[in-house]
Amino acid sequence: MDVRSSSESSESNSSGDSLTQTVEDSLGYCTICDDNVNHSTWECPDRSKGFGLCCSVCLGPCKNNDEHRECQVEMIKYCVVCGAQARHWGEDCPHVPEDDEVEVDLSTLTDDYYGF
Fold it and tell me: Which of 41, 46, 80, 103 could form a disulfide with 90 if both were Cys (CB 3.0 to 4.6 A apart)?
């Protein structure tokens, strides 16, 4: 589907070039690339770096794949410790000293936003 602004025309300009611009040609922000690029986060060529399987029971990477297989959805990684998106999960946060355990109070999290 072509989307054209009211100032654009499908007619050619005086040099013979088309002024038509599609949405796909415009720049968009990609969370994984952390930049304005020619693709969305969902269409990123490096998608595997920023996405992971999230379990609606564990509220993060699943700790029981056998029992929760039906509860997993692909989503952008999010760190509950430092707030980073598309980089790592909270359990893998590089801002936590190695000898410390990451503890997340799951009672404060909600799954309403994700529609689980």
Answer: 80
Which residues, 6+ apart, have CB-to-CB distance to 60 below 8 Å? 54, 80, 89, 90, 91, 104
The SS3 call for residue 74 is strand
Question: 50 Cβ partners below 8 Å, 6+ apart?
Answer: 31, 32, 41, 44, 76, 77, 85, 86, 87
- Provide DSSP, 61-107: S-S-HHHHGGGEEEEE-B-TTT--BSS--GGG-TTS-TTSPP---GG
Q: How many CB atoms lie within 10 A of CB 32?
A: 23
Please state whether beta strands 35-37 and 28-30 pair in parallel, antiparallel, or not at all (unpaired).
antiparallel
Model confidence band, residue 20 (pLDDT cutoffs 50, 70, 90)? very low
Q: Provide the total of helices (H) and of strands (E) in the chain, helices listed first.
A: 2, 4
Residue type, 15: S
Q: What is the pLDDT of residues 22-33, one digit of tens each?
A: 554 567 888 889
Task: Map out the domains of the chain as residue ranges.
Answer: 23-108
